[in-house]
TrEMBL record:
Keywords: Membrane, Transmembrane, Transmembrane helix. The chain crosses the membrane at residues 168-190. This is TPM domain-containing protein. It comes from Helicobacter turcicus. It comes from the Bacteria.
Length: 193
């Protein structure tokens, strides 16, 4: 009986792995394994809570296909709503492809310019799996957060949000302190004369 129970549990485990949905459709050694694992966890949570599938493709190069052909190859079997973050190293191309339903949930240009581009290294030799993982993950997490906000749900596995109110208060306090120090300096300088 114990033997059959062990076989049953192992069978269930392997079936779960076999039929689990993979959200990293292709990774040609561009992303580090920890990033791939995090993308899978966050994508699964976003799908469960919003019904939107988030995918990543990270290619070394396009091969003998154009970027449009490669993107079409990966998007042709995806069910709407979906978002695909597409990257190719050699050609240095990044694209955010979204189904019409998902496109309404966030601004692709904001994600691209505010969360991906600032982290891209200036030199080609800086495009390591670690740096690629950093800028793709940063954009990916922002997309997930925007979709969650659109659906009014909270994500457990996302990065902590920066509290803008605290940032504004700290910045204001620093400016006030700088102004007071400047006034004291002027007061002391004028008093000496």
């Amino acid at each position: 009986m114990l033997k059959f129970l062990k076989i049953g549990i192992l069978s269930l485990f392997f079936c779960t792995l076999t039929f689990a949905k993979s959200y990293v459709l292709e990774n040609q050694n561009q992303l580090v394994e920890k990033t791939v694992g995090f993308i899978e966890i966050l994508s699964n949570e976003v799908y469960e809570k919003t019904g939107v599938s988030l995918y990543v493709v990270a290619l070394e190069n396009l091969g003998n296909k154009s970027i449009q052909e490669q993107e079409q190859l990966f998007t042709q079997n995806l069910k709407s709503p979906y978002v695909l973050l597409f990257f190719t190293h050699f050609e240095k191309k990044i694209n955010i492809i979204a189904s019409p339903e998902a496109e309404k949930m966030f601004d692709k240009k904001e994600v691209y310019w505010d969360y991906i581009i600032p982290l891209i290294p200036n030199k080609d030799d800086g495009l390591t799996p670690q740096s690629i993982s950093a800028f793709l993950l940063n954009g990916f997490v922002d997309i997930a957060d925007r979709i969650a906000t659109y659906h009014n749900v909270e994500l457990e596995h996302s990065f902590p949000k920066q509290n803008k109110g605290v940032q504004i208060a700290v910045r204001t306090l620093l400016y006030v302190m700088l102004f007071v120090i400047l006034l004291l300096f002027v007061f002391v300088y004028l008093r000496r004369k």
